Amino acid sequence: MKTEININGRTALVELLQREGNHVKIRVDEEILELDLARVGDGVYSALLNDKSYNIEMVNTNSKRHYTVSTFYNTYNIEIIDPQTKYLKSREGAIDEAGGDSIVSPMPGRVIKILVKEKEQVQAGQTVMTISAMKMESEFKAPRDAVVKKINVNEGDVVDGNQVMMVFE
């Protein structure tokens, strides 16, 4: 299973490929790493990677998904972005970061309702569509006062994650 991990503001896609005892094989983005990883205490790990030894301390901060990870030389702020967290974060804004001019689906789902039409004037915060994903319905709102330029989906359509559903001008 692939997991997104935010490390000091950089998001990496991490996948566990194999685990046999202390031997762990993972993919970080496109790089495959093989390491010997052993837990030596509560939140303390020893790792061997490319013939180098690392002592790692993981301190849980304010939730199960936020950690401060320290090695001898560096400290990293880590957030594990599981599918539910990704969905909830996207749901809060669900606006394309490339300028806030579109609404994108945060994950696969089904379009339940489209409440506006192309060329219609909308107000900031106005609900423009409802999507069902992970057994939850989510309302998507206009990012600003705008005109609906293009609606790329219809009611009942199944959408993919990161699919542009509506564009504003």
Structure explained in plain terms:
- With 169 residues, the protein is mainly beta.
- It folds into 2 domains: 2-81, Glycoprotein, Type 4 Pilin, CATH 3.30.700.30; 91-168, OB fold (Dihydrolipoamide Acetyltransferase, E2P), CATH 2.40.50.100.
- The chain has 1 helix and 16 strands.
- It has one helix at 83-93; strands spanning 2-7, 10-20, 23-28, 31-41, 44-49, 52-60, 66-70, 75-81, 102-104, 109-114, 121-122, 127-133, 136-141, 146-151, 158-159, 164-168.
- The strands form 3 sheets. An 8-stranded antiparallel barrel has the order 1-2-3-4-5-6-7-8. A 4-stranded antiparallel β-sheet has the order 9-16-14-11, with no helix packed on it.
- Strand 12 (127-133) and strand 13 (136-141) form a beta hairpin.
Mean pLDDT, as a whole number? 84
- How many individual helices? 1
- Which ranges are low-confidence, i.e. pLDDT below 50, for 5 or more consecutive residues? 93-99
What amount of the residues lies in strands? Answer: over 45%
Q: Main sheet? A: 8 strands, antiparallel, barrel
Number of domains: 2
**Shape label:** elongated
Please estimate the helix content. Answer: under 10%
Distance between the termini: 38 Å
Using only CA atoms, what is the Rg? 21 Å
